Model the fold of this input.
Amino acid sequence: MTPVSRRAFLGGAALAIAGMNSDAPHRADHASKEKHLMNTQKTALSCPPLIRGHLRWYDHAFAMREGIDGWRRELDDERRIGANLLWLSHVRPALDAKDADTLRDIFDACAERGMGVIIETGKTRDWYIHCDVKRELDEVRAVCAMLAERYGDHPAFFAWYVHHEIYAAWDAFGAYIDELYPAAVAACKKALPDKPVTLSPFFILDKDKVFGDFRYAEPQEYREYWARLIRRSGFDIIMLQDSGEHFSYVTMEQRRPFFEAMRGACAEAGATLWGNVETAEMVVESIEKYVARYGRVHHANAKGIPWRNVPIDRLEQKLRLAAEYAENIVSWGYCQFGRPHLNAEAKQWYEEYKRYHDRVAASIEMDGGFDG
Done:
């Protein structure tokens, strides 16, 4: 393995733990990307296979019940497992609250811990059904304006998150997205021009339409679609969800072509690719077992599918796959299933992940070499 400096290894959009600020680069430097790749036994990784931030919904009831001490406890738990980002969604209740400025307290707590905040830009209920661009942009612009006015100069404010997540879109819905995305990015840039704008799209693996009559895009079509849409919209960071359809039977090799496709799309469009590696999954042994048990219905409508924290050995595979293609890794699932204060199962998973994190972090030598 050829050692490089720690700064070079964590360069680009992969942020130094205590160094979040508006001067961090927001677009990939593709000409120098090769110097950031680190060789392991079999593969080259472009970032450590570690989670740097967890998606968390703002829960106003929690905020009022627990206060800022509860948030500090949660942030301390995340810092202990290597997080340097708080990825926060559903913040409109906090903006509308009259009794306290909880978001200010959260920003302050993040700054005290060397953490940056990725914060959502707002969305309306059933945005994907009503497809009303004006209605949606009114909400996005209002949220962006409030966030920029109140917290735009805060040192912990790192990036915007456009919460309108899609797979790919065609026909009338595709036209809606083509109009909505560039305008949403423009609203972010108007409010705070120096902050990167992120999006977290997903992919599907359901070629046989088990979960509904959804058009399937082969990886090459997926790449072409996203290269065009990212370029049209101006997103800075794409945080690709790795789930497929959230099932425990999904393999790394099923995911790989879509990471490859999105890396190509980001390279063409001038964006930076991050991975969104999910730490929770639905427990189903195979697609055949799913059909036999639940029928040919969308998993959102299938009753009683058990969820679990992704076992650490499997999570390591997921993280290593993402790290082959992405320049940083964030996650969904921790808040719902992995926080140590939730229950005994969650605490056990948390401690197992912490041991994994500590082992990998220790292998990043002082000269920057990453020995996976």
Q: What stands out?
A: The chain is about 45% helix and 10% strand. The chain has a mean pLDDT of 88.
